[in-house]
Amino acid sequence: MATKGKSCVLAALLLAGSAHAADDVHLWVRGFIPDSLSADTADGTARGVVKASDGGCFSTDQRGWSDEDDASSRLSSDFHLVIPDSGVPVVRPSQQRVHSAGTIHQVDCQSAQELAASPTQLLASVVGTPSQTDAKTQIHILAAVADPQRPWSSSTISYDVTFTYDRTTKTLDYVATTGLFPAYEAYASLNEGAAVTVLRSGPLRRNESTEAATVELKGSVNLSGKRPMAPTNFTVQ
Question: Domain extents for the chain?
């Protein structure tokens, strides 16, 4: 009887707590090298291989767009923005840390056989403190790694994103700046629901004159399963 009584009390507490459950917004952002950037073999370079400016070659991430949170990438940010009914919102990394860098696989340009593999170092890693005004919670992230296609330059694979979540409307606004290379994607889910595409950009072809170019993106998506708002828009600057 005592055990049964304790179970009933625990169940009641859990039920009461669920009425004021937090909103858990899972966000994951990635910069990756898609297969579409590999050569068409006209210069003898194998498919799935990208040539660097120094003449060496490295493999792509062997994929296109993907909302799988473990898809291969050169730069990744994965975290939960937990917003309680009352109290301070917090950032909870999905893994050991929010930002992570991938691995550069140097390969033979013609055969695509791997020659060497080396981890990529994070050049920038920023996770802002969430701020809240009424029903809106904002979080800023910034991450960057070296650009394997331009090893001699200061060019990076990078993104700088500010997310604003409105708990009343369940919408997620974003303002982002990315590099011109390679491709960038972001997804979100609310309370472990289905993944929603937040943004997709690139890959854009570039040359020396666009070395320092960036891509500006902004938009809004609804995370409650309703029809998304206006699609992503971007301008190259």
Answer: 23-236
